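Lab meeting, item 3. Inverse folding demo.
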């Protein structure tokens, strides 16, 4: 599934799922543009390592996905965007009646509105190139719900709906738009939570992972960032040219319940 000659822009990609997706796209030959809101030496070093490891062009562009202006400027600064992966996201857990307004606004802006702004900016470049792929990283929470995650669930449901609209508006063009819906993924952020969960429940690592953290994931295994990256590569390939406007769940059976 060679993506040589394509340029991929991946939002929120200096760690976790976004970085995993970027690496797999680079492994398949795509040039990549990494992004987050910071602008540190280590951010640019990550891009340099990807370039060295995979023989592609890789850059890092700082942009705040809570800002409509920054979202659109990211695509402009990238110069080319054959593949857009909307991955940036944040989370806050609290009851609806106590949910801080500023947290709601930030989650909707970063998790949902940024998808609109980057897609709106990228579609003209894809049309000019005569080819394009939009891959939105939604969530199992884009298809189902959990208590105390109102903003996140609303945003991810919105991403799934926006994915369908984008697909319909590009259906007669060589452009596709799909959403990947991960369950629990083993990222550094999740890994860091395991010791606290072990202490809180007085369980060993394997038990707390299976019985607490992966309670809703029937496989009782985390998805990996490499698996999500591989799914993104498939959606960008010619094999997926007629797959558009749909969701692919990488959730160990969560949404089958």
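The presenter then showed the designed sequence:
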């Amino acid at each position: 599934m060679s993506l040589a000659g394509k340029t991929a822009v991946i939002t929120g990609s200096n760690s976790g799922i976004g970085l995993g997706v970027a690496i797999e796209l680079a492994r398949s030959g795509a040039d990549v543009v990494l992004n987050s809101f910071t602008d540190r030496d280590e951010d640019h070093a990550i891009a340099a390592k990807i370039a060295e490891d995979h023989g592609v062009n890789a850059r890092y562009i700082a942009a705040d996905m809570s800002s409509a202006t920054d979202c659109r400027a990211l695509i402009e600064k990238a110069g080319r965007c054959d593949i857009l992966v909307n991955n940036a996201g944040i989370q806050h857990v609290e009851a609806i009646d106590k949910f801080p307004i500023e947290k709601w606004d930030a989650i909707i802006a970063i998790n949902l509105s940024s998808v609109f702004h980057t897609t709106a900016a990228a579609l003209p470049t894809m049309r000019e190139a005569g080819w394009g792929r939009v891959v939105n990283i939604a969530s199992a929470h884009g298809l189902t719900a959990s208590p105390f995650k109102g903003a996140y669930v609303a945003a991810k449901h919105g991403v799934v709906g926006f994915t369908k609209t984008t697909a319909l508006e590009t259906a007669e063009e060589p452009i596709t738009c799909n959403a990947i819906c991960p369950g629990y993924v083993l990222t550094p952020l999740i890994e860091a939570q395991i010791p606290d969960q072990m202490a809180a429940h007085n369980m060993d690592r394997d038990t707390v992972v299976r019985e607490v953290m992966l309670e809703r994931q029937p496989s009782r295994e985390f998805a990996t960032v490499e698996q999500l990256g591989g799914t993104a590569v498939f959606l960008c390939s010619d094999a997926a040219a007629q797959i558009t406007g749909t969701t692919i769940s990488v959730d160990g059976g969560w949404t089958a319940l």
